[in-house]
Write a structure and sequence with these properties.
By secondary structure, the protein is α/β, with parallel strands linked by helices. The two termini are 19 Å apart.
């Protein structure tokens, strides 16, 4: 599996001021491609912490690291400086990035706006980096190759992050992942507890080591336990993925019924 890591930057994420919806969105997006986020790190707006987190990621040799947040004009937006430190690069004004910022203001009818030091700061990139068009905001995204790892730096504003991800990040990750098919289903059980389901799941994972089979308890109502079970199979061939997924689902439903539980419904998987 292609290793993708995510580094999110911002005190607001650590103190509970902002919910990290960006990671949730990216995780779902990558899962639909047939891969997943292997590690998520969240750090404060601190140069040493950003640099250390990126260096630590490099030591695991991921194919991609997606860094989110801290690309704006304010003093606490120091992600690119921290990335430069972690990648051992110098910072320099990038003329293409500056042009993208000028074009953004021009599209908004602000072509004559002064590019103050704070605005020019968004165009100061690590050496060797390429700016990425931000069609939804001001600060360009950034692509940098360090060793064998491609580093993408994206704004933290969700609309901007998603715009750049779809346009510039996703196509490159898809190309690396290759053609994969994903088959998924969610089973809903009643009358069986997770502890009774555990050995059944273990057996299916042993039979199908590449599958994802995960239980999610949904509480007990009127004395009846409720559990949802996600089954996901990724394979090069769609028919093979569907066959394995259906086989696991049939076996789990059969064993739950045998144990006294009830299969209430099935639906599209997570």
């Amino acid at each position: 599996m292609v290793r993708v890591e995510v580094l999110t930057v911002g005190k607001e994420l650590l103190i509970g001021r902002t919910l990290n919806t960006n990671v949730h969105w990216m995780g779902r997006r990558l899962a639909l491609m047939g891969t997943m986020i292997k590690e998520i790190t969240t750090v404060d707006d601190d140069l040493e912490e950003i640099s250390h987190a990126l260096s630590s990621a490099f030591s695991r040799r991921p194919a991609f690291v997606v860094v989110v947040g801290g690309l704006g004009p304010t003093p606490d937006d120091m992600t690119l400086k921290g990335v430069a430190m972690g990648a051992k690069r110098r910072l320099a004004l990038n003329r293409k990035a500056l042009s993208l910022i000028r074009e953004h203001y021009a599209r908004r009818g602000m072509a004559e706006i002064e590019l103050t030091p704070a605005r020019r700061k968004m165009a100061v990139l690590p050496s060797g980096a390429s700016p990425l068009l931000n069609a939804a905001g001001t600060a360009p995204g950034v692509r940098l190759v360090a060793g064998g790892t491609v580093v993408f730096c994206l704004p933290g504003v969700p609309a901007e992050m998603r715009s750049i991800f779809r346009r510039s990040v996703e196509p490159e990750i898809r190309a690396k992942v290759g053609r994969l098919s994903r088959a998924a289903v969610t089973l809903k059980f009643e009358g069986i507890y997770e502890s009774a389901l555990a050995p059944l799941i273990r057996r299916e994972l042993q039979r199908n080591p590449g599958a994802y089979v995960k239980s999610h308890p949904r509480g007990v109502r009127e004395g009846v336990s409720r559990i949802e079970l996600d089954i996901v199979v990724v394979d090069k061939e769609r028919t093979d993925a569907e066959r394995v997924k259906d086989g696991i689902a049939r076996e789990m439903a059969r064993e739950v019924t045998r144990a006294g539980g009830v299969v209430k419904s099935t639906g599209e998987g997570a």
